[in-house]
Design brief:
The complex is a heterodimer of chains A (110) and B (893).
Chain A (H helix, E strand, L loop, with lengths): L1 H17 L5 E2 H11 L8 H14 L2 E6 L7 E6 L1 H25 L5
Antiparallel strand pairs in A: 1-3, 2-3
Helix pairs in contact in A: 1-4
Chain B lengths: L3 H9 L6 H24 L4 H12 L4 H7 L20 H18 L1 H30 L10 E8 L12 H10 L3 E15 L4 E8 L3 H4 L6 E2 L4 H5 L5 E4 L1 H8 L9 E4 L2 E8 L12 E4 L16 E6 L5 H18 L1 H4 L2 E7 H6 L3 H32 L1 H9 L4 H37 L14 H27 L3 H5 L7 H40 L9 E7 L10 H14 L4 E7 L10 E6 L12 E7 L3 H5 L3 E4 L13 E5 H7 L9 E5 L3 E10 L14 E5 L7 E8 L7 H11 L5 E6 H8 L1 H35 L1 H9 L4 H31 L14 H27 L3 H6 L2
Parallel strand pairs in B: 3-8, 5-7, 14-19, 16-18
Antiparallel strand pairs in B: 1-9, 1-10, 2-3, 2-6, 2-9, 4-7, 5-8, 6-7, 11-20, 11-21, 12-20, 13-14, 13-17, 15-18, 16-19, 17-18
The chains are: A alpha+beta (110), B alpha+beta (893).
């Protein structure tokens, strides 16, 4: 249970983080997750897009179609103000969580 | 490069998204896949490798739709897709089933209407008859601990048979003294009393022993009940009023207790008022104590009391019956002259009141059960045909994952819903039917007027509806829930093996329907024939144009014995002058009126028999003119005349049965009889008249003796007037003549003799009419069933018929083929039905008058009617088949 929630929560955190600084399209997001995790994390299409739509529906992300010169129309996602708050809060939670794990699992200090 | 869009669209199809949204998702995802493909190609993958990898990104078939379903505004899962969710909660499933059923039934209104009507007929009849059955036979009587109330009848000690007779007062007093089984044993005597007031009124009343009200467990609402002291004193000193009489006659004045009222010209004190609704014996509105010590009440051979008792708690009827029988045996030893063959029989009061109705009501209950079975079979037909038409729909549901059980449950829900609709309509029919039954019911059927639609009735309808729904739905549902998927999904998948199996079931149902209808028709036929014979019976008098009414003279203490006869004579003289009156006379007990009287007699010149062996015959006192007014034919000698007066030679007229039984081979005229009228009446036979069916039309005429009122005694009689014109129209004039002679003489119970004869066969008419109606409904339903099946079968076989016609088959051959196919099954039903009817009609033997249960005419007619109806029901669809155009038929799918 914890693991599933963790994974779900962390996936949301990952995506929100990736669009924090700039808007990105879906393929880009999936590539970045794969690259930055060194291939450990991979979202397939059937999981990624429903998740994006969910976050959009919650009002954390905003998606819009953008046409760029010489390219197909793409849908870009960017963080909303609400998303930003959520991201901050999730980050804090995550840090706390990681710190807690580290304390438990790390080498003991005298 | 594959068509990503098409692939993604396919996977989204089940979600049925809004088109714009679906386009958006397809666009975005196909770009993603395209990017991935291009990237892989750029990295050196082959086209095939790149395609495979990109598709792998979409991952397994259903995941995308499953994930999106949680996020997107997908259309709600279509409720038509039965079983889409396999393990749901029962109530939710049921609700879904019901909603679906309602839509499904509403979608085929013709089917629903026909099925609901058939079921409503069947269930309406069942509900109405069940209500009568329960209300009359099963409902306890309206007294506390009514199960402990019993009725004591006299029985013949030699045969143990009861004969509906009464008990003598001294016997009753001995029973009361000696028995230990009863909390209370009491006697009563029904009579009419004249309540004198501003206008004399005849009031149905009863003389009762002390403890009568206690026996029934009901105490007066006002005043006191009768005590044993009331039995001691002379003829009546106290009276108890019914609630109705108290309100109508005394304005519900509580101060009436202790007041004097005039009854039959004597003053009595009102002792109490009974609570509303108390009416025992039936109709009684006034009760008087019976002076059991009075001299007239001590003759052991005069039987005129009815005896009821309340058993002590824990005492069984059998034990009390044993005790009474042994008391009777003791009395027979002490009083051999009067009690030698006298014994008793104890039954529950309920049984006594309604036991005679049990066979009729059981018969009707069976009949409506058959009608409902036929209706059930009809609905099963309809559902089978409908299930065949819906095979594709069901196959689609099954292929979408609905289990056979789920489909079965849905179909049964539909069937039960249908039956409940039929039941609701049936309950409505039953409410009206019940009103009709109560209105129709003959006067002598007890308790019918108590019947009201109640919760029991509706519970019964609901229960029967559910059962009916399950029964009529189970076979079609089982068939339909296991369709041959592949076959059904193909467009032309009709008439394959499924069709044949369906059809066999149809045929079995036809056979069953016909068999049920045969049994009902055979039973109804017997009753109708029996009733015809009963109506053809000559009652021994001519009821047409005759009016009867009761005339009761007040008791006049001190008046000469025959002053009543003088009154009658004066009245008859006045009536004779009325225009339109052909003949008029009075009789002490009118035929078919329920009144009766018989007494002992001896024939002069014969060795005196032992007192207990003295013969007994019906005894009537009449005025001159009675026999003429009734047109009871004179066979020999003469009628009574005004010359047959007190002081002259006493004269007697006897019936043909009397002459045949007691004076066989002798000249009846001139013989002398001594008739026991309480005092010996010695007279000469001066005439022999025709027999009269006095007790009922079905009973044999009994030997009867007539004596003239001027020589014998008649205080209360029935006036019979034969008019040349409308009989009932004379009532007013007669009433005026009576009042002109004496305004204290009440006239009551005015009716035509025709009405009396009509009422006399009320119960047979009631059951005959009802059974005939049910048989007609059964025949109609069975005909509709056969017709439906044949019409359906022709539709199914249209292709085959087309081939036959195309190959040159004669149209008559086609006709024969279709009719023959149907008649085969109908004939099987007739055979089975006849066999069953032979067995079952035997049980009706007691209801039949001069018709044997195996009556050949009946058993020859019934199969002919059924086969005729079946032929017609087969012929109509067959004619349609034979007129088909081969080309059209072949093209028909």
């Amino acid at each position: 249970m914890l693991e599933r929630e963790l994974k779900k929560g962390s996936a949301e955190l990952l995506i929100l983080s990736l669009v924090e600084k700039r808007q990105r399209h879906g393929y880009e997001i999936s590539k970045l997750i794969e690259e930055r995790s060194g291939g450990t994390l991979r979202f397939n299409v059937a999981s990624l897009y429903p998740l994006l739509y969910r976050l959009e529906k919650r009002g954390w992300l905003e998606g819009r179609w953008v046409e760029k010169e010489g390219q197909r129309r793409r849908r870009y996602y960017r963080l909303t103000a609400q998303g930003r708050q959520v991201l901050a809060s999730q980050r804090r939670g995550w840090d706390t969580f990681v710190e807690a794990i580290r304390r438990i699992t790390g080498p003991e200090h005298a | 490069m594959p068509d990503w869009r098409a692939e993604i669209s396919r996977r989204l199809a089940a979600l049925r998204l809004a088109p714009a949204r679906e386009w958006e998702i397809v666009e975005e995802l196909s770009q993603h896949l395209n990017d991935r493909y291009q990237e892989l190609r750029a990295a050196g993958s082959t086209d095939a490798e790149a395609c495979e990898a990109a598709l792998a990104d979409l991952s397994e078939e259903r995941l995308l739709a499953a994930q999106l379903r949680a996020v997107e505004d997908v259309a709600p899962p279509n409720p038509v897709v039965l079983g889409a969710r396999e393990r749901n909660s029962m109530p939710a499933d049921l609700w879904q089933d019901i909603r679906y059923s309602v839509r499904s039934l509403a979608a085929s209104p013709a089917f629903t209407l026909v099925a609901v009507m058939a079921l409503a007929l069947g269930m309406g009849a069942n509900t109405a008859v069940f209500s009568v059955f329960r209300g009359v036979l099963l409902n306890p009587l309206p007294y506390p601990h009514a199960d402990r109330l019993v009725w004591l009848s006299p029985a013949d000690a030699r045969t143990g048979q009861t004969y509906g007779g009464a008990i003598s007062p001294p016997d009753f007093v001995d029973f009361r003294k000696q028995s230990t089984s009863f909390e209370n044993l009491s006697a009563f005597l029904s009579m009419d009393l004249t309540l004198n007031g501003t206008q004399a009124e005849r009031v149905p009343a009863a003389g009762v022993s002390a403890g009568f009200f206690e026996t029934l467990g009901t105490r007066p609402a006002l005043g006191r009940s009768f005590q044993s002291g009331d039995e001691q004193v002379g003829w009546p000193q106290a009276a108890i009023l019914s609630d109705g009489l108290w309100r109508r006659h005394f304005g519900a004045d509580p101060a009436v207790i202790g007041q004097m009222i005039s009854l039959d010209g004597k003053s009595v004190t009102v002792a109490g008022v009974m609570p509303a609704g108390f009416e025992f014996p039936k109709g009684a509105q006034l009760w008087e104590p019976m002076p059991l010590r009075y001299e007239e009440m001590t003759v052991r051979r005069f039987h005129f009391l009815r005896v009821i008792g309340r058993l002590k708690p824990g005492v069984s009827i059998q034990r009390a019956d044993q005790e009474m029988k042994s008391i009777c045996a003791g009395l027979a030893r002490v009083y051999p002259d009067s009690n030698r063959y006298f014994s008793s029989q104890l039954v529950s009061l309920l049984e006594q009141m309604v036991g005679s109705l049990r066979p009729t009501l059981t018969l009707l209950l069976c009949a409506v059960g058959f009608v409902l079975s036929i209706a059930c079979a009809n609905v099963a037909h309809l559902q089978l045909a409908r299930a065949a038409a819906r095979q594709k729909e069901i196959a689609i549901r099954s292929s979408l994952g609905a289990s056979a059980g789920r489909v079965l449950r849905q179909l049964l829900t539909e069937s039960v819903l249908l039956a409940l609709l039929g039941g609701a309509l049936g309950a409505l029919l039953a409410v009206f039917g019940l009103k009709a039954l109560v209105a129709l019911h003959p006067a002598n059927l007890p308790r019918l007027e108590e019947l009201r639609p109640d919760a029991w009735m509706f519970a019964f309808t609901a229960g029967v509806s559910i059962l009916t729904g399950l029964l009529s739905g189970i076979a079609p549902a089982v068939r339909a829930a296991r369709p041959d998927l592949a076959d059904s999904l193909k467009d032309g998948g009709r008439g394959g093996s499924t069709g044949r199996v369906h059809h066999r079931m149809h045929n079995v149902l036809v056979t069953a329907e016909v068999a049920f209808a045969v049994v009902l028709l055979a039973g109804a036929g017997l009753l109708v024939r029996s009733f015809q014979r009963l109506e053809d019976v000559d009652p021994g008098f001519d009821p047409a144009g005759t009016l009867a009414m009761q005339i009761t003279l007040p008791m006049r203490p001190g008046a000469s014995d025959h002053s009543d006869a003088d009154f009658h004579r004066a009245l008859l003289e006045r009536l004779a002058t009325l225009p339109g009156v052909e003949a008029a006379g009075l009789v002490s007990e009118l035929p078919l009126s329920g009144q009766g009287n018989d007494t002992l007699f001896t024939i002069d010149g014969r060795p005196a028999p032992k007192p207990s062996e003295r013969p007994d015959a019906d005894d009537r006192t009449i005025t001159p003119g009675y026999l003429e007014a009734m047109r009871i034919p004179l066979l020999k000698g003469r009628y009574f005349t005004a010359a047959d007066r007190d002081g002259g030679t006493n004269v007697i007229i006897v019936s043909r049965a009397f002459a045949d039984q007691y004076l066989r081979g002798q000249e009846a005229l001139g013989q002398h009889l001594t008739i026991d009228h309480g005092f010996p009446f010695h007279g000469e036979i001066v005439g022999v008249v025709g027999d009269v069916r006095h007790r009922s039309l079905a009973s044999r005429p009994r030997p009867t003796m007539y004596t003239p009122d001027a020589q014998a005694y008649m205080r209360r009689g029935t006036l019979v007037i034969r008019g040349r014109i409308n009989a009932l129209g004379m009532a007013g004039a007669v009433r005026r003549e009576v009042a002109a002679l004496n305004r204290d003489v009440p006239v009551s119970g005015i009716q035509t003799m025709r009405g009396l004869v009509f009422d006399a066969v009320g119960e047979p008419r009631f059951r005959t009419l009802l059974l005939a109606v049910f048989a007609a409904v059964a025949l109609l339903l069975a005909a509709a069933g056969i017709y439906g099946v044949m019409a359906y079968s022709v539709t199914l076989r249209m292709h085959e018929i087309g081939i036959r016609l195309a190959l040159g088959a004669d149209r008559r051959a086609v006709l024969g083929l279709v009719v023959g196919g149907g008649m085969k099954w109908a004939a099987a039903g007739v055979a089975i039905g006849l066999a069953a009817a032979f067995g079952l009609t035997r049980l009706m033997a007691a209801m039949l008058y001069e018709v044997r249960p195996t009556d050949p005419v009946n058993f020859a007619t019934v199969p002919l009617i059924l086969l005729g109806v079946a032929f017609l029901a087969c012929y109509l669809p067959a004619r349609r088949a034979s007129r088909l155009d081969a080309v059209v038929a072949l093209r028909h799918e």
